[in-house]
Sequence to fold (403 residues):
Amino acid sequence: MPSRPQLAHLTAALNELREKGTYFKLRILEDQQAPVCHYDGREVINLASNNYLGLANDPRLIEAAINATRKLGVGSGAVRTIAGTMRIHMELEEKIAAFKNVEACVVFQSGFTANAGTVSSILGKEDFILSDELNHASIIDGARLSRAKIKVFRHKDAAHCEELLKEIQNDPGKKLIITDGVFSMDGDIGPVDKLAALAEKYGAIMMVDDAHASGVLGRNGRGSVDHFGMHGRVDVQVGTLSKAIGALGGYVCGSRDLIDYLYHRARPFLFSTSHPPSVAATCIKAFEILETEPERIERLWSNTRYLQSQLQSAGFNIGGLTTPATETPITPLIIGDGRQTMEFSRALFDAGILGTGIAFPTVPEGKARVRLIVTSEHTRPQLDRALETLTTIARKAGILNAA
Ligand SMILES: *Cc1c(COP(=O)(O)O)cnc(C)c1O
Fold:
């Protein structure tokens, strides 16, 4: 159906994106989410997924999903609070709580709903949220839904966060400090240690979103709290089951009362159906693998070091000058101009490399980049092939630093 005049503003907005060169079409994956796979019929080295540990297509996880489906069916049939809490959901939550060394855990449908549902339900309009300027959209949405007053501190700037805390320290409202554990666009690590210390000093609640840290940072991928040795000092830890864990979902870890409260008040938990049993079974298996195969995480970091050092010697700007320096497998190739970035990403694709072009409004204007994420499963020859192509295409496009 052609669009009717009622939606003309949408067409106009799309045309504006086309003019700016940042309009995109969805790329379609034809097979599994693997280091080499097919998008839109083309074979590519995939440097765009969040499948950090290759678990999205691990045969043992596939087996676990199939077995759970055979035994328990394909759907849970209800929201958790009505009739949709299955034994396997509880097993997953207990598994995660034990893994993270906390009292309790609740699983949400996604990391997005875990953040938005938690932030919006634990605070009200008399309260304050102190949020890093680069925090994820799901935190921002949760903060808005809570109706609390939002104070944004400069990226990773604990001193600025403290200034903001001082301004409101005599206000009776509750305060929440929140940061990403790993920032998804630059790959740098949030100052969880400093912020948690501030939270203690000012009596604030401390919350971390570990979507990109789950399975990546800390012992066996336990996340940023483990990375900084801050066990027991972060009240709310959010993680995702959708990235390194390989399936889908989000979770919140903390005290038994926090989790009980979320059972009663978090709106995505109350009003949206729980996971199919296959997803819960998949995730349980994934945590077993994290516990028993730390070598996957070692491979992830060794691939990261290799790719990043080679990119740097080839003259790529992988952050650290006008943008934060990456400290994780997330590898931005900073280009600046949105159109040039999207063109570079398309040229890479035509040459057999999938790297996501990211422009405004996902990143600030003038800080557009192609974001690469390497996984534990990429082989050296694949990485070498990718590096060669990246360098050739970048040289043609004139985006390498004069080296
Ligand atoms: C991906 C991501 C989320 C959302 O997780 P999903 O499970 O994909 O919904 C939340 N926070 C951050 C920082 C993320 O990168």
Q: What stands out?
A: The domain at 58-292 is CATH 3.40.640.10 (Aspartate Aminotransferase; domain 2). The pocket of pyridoxal-5'-phosphate is lined by residues 110-112, 115, 136, 138, 180, 184, 209, 211-212, 240, 242, 250 (CB under 6 Å). The CA atoms of residues 346 and 357 lie 8 Å apart. DSSP finds 14 helices and 13 strands in the chain.
